Amino acid sequence: MPTSHHAPQTDSAHPATSDIPLVTEDPRFSRRQIAIAIVALSLGGFAIGVTEFAIMGLLQEAVADLGITIPQGGHLISAYALGVVVGAPLLSLPGATRERRSYALFLLGLFVIGHGLSLVAPNYETMLAARFISGLPHGAFFAVAALMAAQMAGPTRRSKAIAAVLGGLAIANVIGVPVVTWAGQQFGWRWMFAIVIVLALITMAAVAVFAPRQMPSKHASIMGELKGLRSQKLWVGILLAVIGFCGMFALYSYISPVMTDVALLDPRYLPYVVGLYGVGMVVGNFVGGWAADKSVLGTVIISMALIAVFMVLFASTAHVVVLALLFLFLVGASASCLSPAMQTFLIDSAPRAPQVAASLHHSAFNAANALGAVLGAAVIDAGWGLRAPSYVGAVAAGVGVLIAVYVIWLSRREPARG
User: Residue ranges of region Disordered (predicted)?
Assistant: First the structure.
């Protein structure tokens, strides 16, 4: 297996690092070329970040245009997320044995088609279906991009390389989401889909030009990927990711009405709100990549505990604009810090199924997206108020801390079984 798929310093049962040559050892590619290739892959994360998060800042515009309620609008978020949950493993399996660059381009093409359908969807039901289709290639693309970046970077810098790919998603929340939120407010929320299509086409061109061809391990097979999913740690890790990230989405899915109706912020400042959250994501993502190269599970449990604390603080101070913004930033940073560690942990947990294991991080992340939006809609419908989703999210993150402790115990009990 490629060295980037596991942690040789802690698991002697994994194959030796010399079994697969790293891309950095190929004289055709310098470190600068590899860095450019990783940036090209991260552009895909940027496009995905825009479509995944801009809808939250434009929720009120979407609701008005489609003639639906805010909880129904939350289902537009859930539909995309469910597409990721379904598509990540299904589209990753056939990619396990394919050349990775060409498969990444195929997935980006499917992403463009889904957004074209969203752009012209005539009603709410069609939009739900189009959002589901748009989400299908999301997780599989991140999986193949993360594996390409990790193999290029080598075993000692793999989490940083994964963080760089995920960083495109985080940076989208600083630049792309605020710009698209502003454009959607000024010219119509469906401009979001047109902008994402352009970003995806630019990504396809960059990946085709700058990313090297990269074959999977000669031992890779679809059956091998399926057999590798027997790992208990993998499924516990997936549960951890779903529960842990669901709190963040319970809050962020309804950030627009919370800031305008609870904090009494002028709607024109919402692009700055989502931008601030994005800055937190960028900071957390790269801190998380650095920390995960030191201790994967240590990063997981600390990040999860911080999410729980900051969610409570956000919910209890949401009526004070300055404090709400501060704790929103800290929720974004702590949640994003968790992401590279969870991606690395899931790959490590199923070393014989790296492609599907990598994709399941995004299935879990978007199952959390769907669950968070649904739970938020439920408590709002129950009349508990717009702060209630944040309190629900804090409880979920607290449960995540307990699961993280169990994962650490399980890993120490069976270190050699991965």
Answer: 1-20
